[in-house]
Write a structure and sequence with these properties.
mainly beta
């Protein structure tokens, strides 16, 4: 399978858990749930384009993702650490789920 990388700001992917989430190296991306299709993986860039996720998915899935056809869901574990700005526990992502959006009939 050919992968077409797509880069998205971390805050756009993580939403409310953005400030709690630890950096990742590489984690899998699944369709709907962990038993669903393995679509590829995501890496966090720390170089020139810091604070972004680069999704390595098929060209078709990248096009759908860039067209806002998916919602994100996450599996994560809490760490023993808390964030500096509050008492919220830090989060370590295990994988990301892409959930197809249900489009309203026209």
């Amino acid at each position: 399978m050919t992968y077409s990388p797509l880069t998205i700001k971390r805050s756009n992917v993580l939403g409310d858990i953005y400030k709690q989430c630890d950096a990742i190296e590489s984690i899998p991306v699944y369709l709907n749930d962990q038993s669903g299709e393995l679509l590829g993986f995501v890496k966090e860039d720390s170089g020139r384009y810091a604070d972004v996720f680069t999704f390595h998915l098929s060209e078709t899935v990248c096009k759908q993702l860039s067209s806002n056809n998916f919602d994100f869901a996450f599996d994560f574990d809490y760490s023993d650490e808390t964030t500096q700005s509050s008492n919220e526990k830090r989060i370590k992502l295990n994988y990301i789920l892409l959930i197809p959006k249900k489009h309203a009939p026209r």
